[in-house]
Amino acid sequence: SKAEGQNRLHRFEPGLLLVRRLRSQLVEDLRAAIRNDGLMLYYQPVVDLVSGRLEGVEALVRWNHPTRGFIMPDEFIPLAEEAGLISELGNWVLRTAVQQLRAWIDDSLVDGDFSVRINISATDLQSLQFIEDVRNVLRDTGVKPDQVVLELTEVAIVKGNELDRYSLAGLRGLGVGIEIDDFGTGYSSISYLRRLPVDRVKVDRSLISGLGTDPGQPALVAAVLQLVRACGLEAVWEGVETAEQADILRELGCLSAQGYYFSRPVPPDDIPALLADQQES
Ligand code: C2E
Ligand code: CA
Ligand code: CA
Ligand code: CA
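Above: the input record for the complex with C2E. Below: its predicted structure, written as tokens.
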């Protein structure tokens, strides 16, 4: 299966072997990186499929390691989880992303509809401190809560306990948006969708990958879209890599999408040019 193939790839990935062997050194490096600006946020546009304009951006963390170069989040987020650094990392990401949005607003690059999306870990969700952190960041920056959207995986939400439900409601109570990430990969009942205090789902890119090659795929996308809307929610489609995929999504009535076809994740300094481009088109 595809999942097994990915596991096999991962097992032989030199980065992961390195993580095992030099784990304790890496943990120390990561701790230092979180505290001394060794991490960076890249931003990937979320695009309105009808107007082509940017609705917002998703913040994606990168670690610029002094000797090993760029390390991707799939490698160091698990390390941060194991080493008990995930809360500190999550707080850094939250603060940095919302401050960046504040700067773009102050520079009149974006308006009050533009949102920044932030990935939060299951650990963040379980921590009442995180709600306080969100409250504090909103107060310190004066950014409107609805311009901040927190992305949570389906697994984190569904496997969550009472406290998680409580936290989710607490976060919602602050007025921030909540989006279910990687929707469609959780293999769980979909009935929970109507009950959860969430605003949107981000459909996993595995649902897009066959668009344009697999003739059965558009019907599946249409069915998922209908299901999500029947639950009173809207969908964002991630992993769009070709013009054909974007066209099919648009024809099916999908509203928002994200993927390499529109833009790769870019450093914050590249965002003004992307915003300027959309004005011309
Ligand atoms: P995710 O939240 O599902 O993010 C989407 C991932 O897909 C990103 O990988 C992005 O670069 C990649 N991607 C975007 N468009 C395309 C496309 O068209 N095709 C393909 N093949 N890939 C695309 P990235 O940046 O390596 O992040 C991987 C995962 O790491 C994220 O998955 C998220 O779960 C986690 N992550 C990233 N930043 C953070 C963070 O600040 N905090 C936490 N807790 N997790 C994070
Ligand atoms: Ca995400
Ligand atoms: Ca995702
Ligand atoms: Ca993911």
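Notes for the reader.
The pocket of calcium ion (ligand 4) is lined by residues 182 (CB under 6 Å).
The chain is about 45% helix and 20% strand.
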